[in-house]
C-alpha cells in the first residue's frame, strides 16, 4: 500500500532557514526506509505508514525545542489509488485490522499510553478523510470514540478535531487514528497542523 | 449549504504577531457576510462559498506584501453534512452547475483570465477531496482538465497539485475548482497551502 506525506515546517522566526535545516537532521534515522524529496513548498516522505508520524514528531520536536513558535503542516495519505504501489510502504509492525472495533480502540489507547513523553506540549488540529468506497461509518465512529478516550482530545471544531497534550501522546494518537481505522486497503487522507510555543495558546 | 474554512497564517519572521494582526484588517470588508472566530491554531471563517478564496487572497497579500516569506494554510469545506446549514453560506453570485462540463470549464477559465493582477507571485499546493457519494469521476477529470488549462498549473505531485503564478489567478483558480466541480450539494474539502517569498522558490 502506498503511504506517505507532504510535510511543511514553519518556524516563526527570522532564522527560519537555519531552524529548518537543523531540524531535517532528525529525519536521518528514517532515511533507510523512506524516499524523501524536497521543493520550495513541502518535503515528500514515502515509506512505512507506521513510521510516518514518528518521523514527523522527531522533525517537529527538533524545530520546536528552540522555544520558538513553529508549526508542522502535513498532507498524509495511505492507499491512494492514483499512486504506484511501493514495497517500502508495506507496514511491518504491530497494526492489524482483523480484530473487532472495540479491541482496536483498546489497542490504540494502549499505544498512546505507552508513547514516549517528550516534555513538549503541542496543539494539533486535523481532518481525517475516508475516500472512495469500502469505508463503513462504524469505523469513523470507532475512530471518534478512540479520540475522545485518547487523553489528548481537546474539542471538535468546524471541519476538524483539535488535540492538545504532550507531543508523544498527540503524535501517537494521530498515528493510531490513521493506521487502525477505515478500510484496511482503503484510501485515507489526513489534513494536519501541529503547533508549539504559540504565544496565544491557552 | 454550509461553507467555510479554517485558516492559518504563518509569517516566517520574529515579528509574526505584528504581521498577523496587521493582515487581519484585510478581512474587514468581509465581516458583514462572514462569521469569524479565532483561537491559537486557526481562524474560522463561515460564509458565502464564492467569497472564501477572495477573503483568503486579501488576507494573505496583506501579510506577503512585507516581502517576508509567509504561508497561508487552510482547510476549506462546502456541504459538510455534520455542520448546521446556515443562510449566510448561500451562494449569491455567478456560479451555476446546470451547464455541461465543457461549458463550466470554459467559464472557469474565463474567471481566471479576468482575475485581478496583484503583482505577487505565489506557489499553491492543494488536494481536493470529494467526500461521500454523488460525485462522478467525470467531475474530477473535468476539474483536472480545467487546472491544466488555467495558466497557473505547475505540476502534479504525490497527494496534491501545485500551482504557480500571480496570486490573483492562483486564488481564482482554486475558487473555481472548489465551486464549479463536484456534486452541487456534495461535500467537497480542500487541503491548501499558499507560499510567497520563499528563498528556495525556483
TrEMBL record, chains A, B:
Q: Which InterPro entries match?
A: HMP/thiamine-bd, MTH1187/YkoF-like, Thiamin/HMP-bd_put_YkoF
Q: Which residues form the Thiamin/hydroxymethyl pyrimidine-binding YkoF putative domain?
A: 4-83, 122-200
Which Pfam family is an annotated match for this chain, by its short name? Ykof
Any one Gene Ontology MF annotation carried by this entry is: thiamine binding
* Positions that bind thiamine: 9, 43
Specify the protein name.
Thiamin/hydroxymethyl pyrimidine-binding YkoF putative domain-containing protein
Amino acid at each position: 500500500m502506498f503511504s506517505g506525506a507532504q510535510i511543511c515546517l514553519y518556524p516563526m522566526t527570522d532564522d527560519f532557514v537555519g531552524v529548518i535545516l537543523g531540524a531535517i537532521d532528525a529525519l536521518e534515522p528514517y532515511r533507510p526506509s523512506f524516499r524523501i524529496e524536497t521543493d520550495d513548498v513541502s518535503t515528500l516522505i514515502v515509506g512505512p505508514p507506521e513510521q510516518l508520524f514518528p518521523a514527523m514528531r522527531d522533525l517537529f520536536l527538533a524545530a520546536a525545542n528552540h522555544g520558538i513558535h513553529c508549526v508542522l503542516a502535513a498532507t498524509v495519505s495511505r492507499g491512494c489509488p492514483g499512486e504506484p504501489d511501493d514495497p517500502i510502504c508495506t507496514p511491518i509492525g504491530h497494526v492489524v485490522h482483523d480484530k473487532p472495533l472495540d479491541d482496536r480502540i483498546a489497542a490504540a489507547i494502549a499505544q498512546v499510553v505507552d508513547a514516549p513523553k517528550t516534555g513538549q506540549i503541542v496543539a494539533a488540529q486535523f481532518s481525517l478523510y475516508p475516500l472512495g468506497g469500502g469505508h463503513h461509518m462504524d469505523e469513523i465512529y470507532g475512530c471518534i470514540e478512540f479520540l475522545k478516550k485518547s487523553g489528548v482530545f481537546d474539542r471538535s471544531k468546524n471541519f476538524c478535531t483539535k488535540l492538545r497534550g504532550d507531543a508523544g501522546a498527540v503524535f501517537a494518537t494521530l498515528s493510531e487514528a490513521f493506521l487502525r481505522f477505515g478500510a484496511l486497503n482503503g484510501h485515507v487522507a489526513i489534513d494536519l497542523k501541529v503547533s508549539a510555543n504559540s504565544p496565544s495558546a491557552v
